[in-house]
Design brief:
elongated
């Protein structure tokens, strides 16, 4: 059940992310059924950026984050490097553990580097 919800969420975010500027893409988890603090989002984005911006990151590399203030933690794994319509892309798997929630939430996002050098959600 959680997997079906995650797949539907990723599809919705992917479609919505195509037309949004980078600033609006900062929190694709906003409507996920749980709240991440702005600090959580910053920590998550920093961990993810090390994977999609890093030229040397290899498939399987994991970056973790943890926010002592919120109790939320997560891991981001680079699961695939690929090309899409001539753009360099990275598929990242986010596993998020929200404080006081038993389940771990999993989301998979693709980010591609535009001709202008910006990384956008696919």
């Amino acid at each position: 059940m959680v997997r079906k919800i995650a797949v539907a969420f990723v599809a919705a975010v992917t479609v919505a992310g195509l037309a949004l500027p980078a600033q609006a893409q900062l929190n694709p988890f906003k409507r996920s059924g749980f709240e991440l603090t702005p600090e959580d989002i910053q920590l998550l984005q920093t961990a993810a950026a090390r994977l999609y911006e890093g030229e040397t990151a290899e498939v399987g590399t994991v970056e973790t984050w943890s926010n002592a203030a919120s109790g939320n933690t997560g891991a981001v794994q680079l699961v695939q490097i690929f090309e899409h319509q001539g753009l360099t892309c990275r598929r990242l798997q986010h596993d998020i553990k929200v404080n006081d929630v038993d389940n771990t939430f999993r989301y998979i996002f693709d980010r591609c580097k535009t001709a202008a050098g910006e990384w956008k959600l696919l």
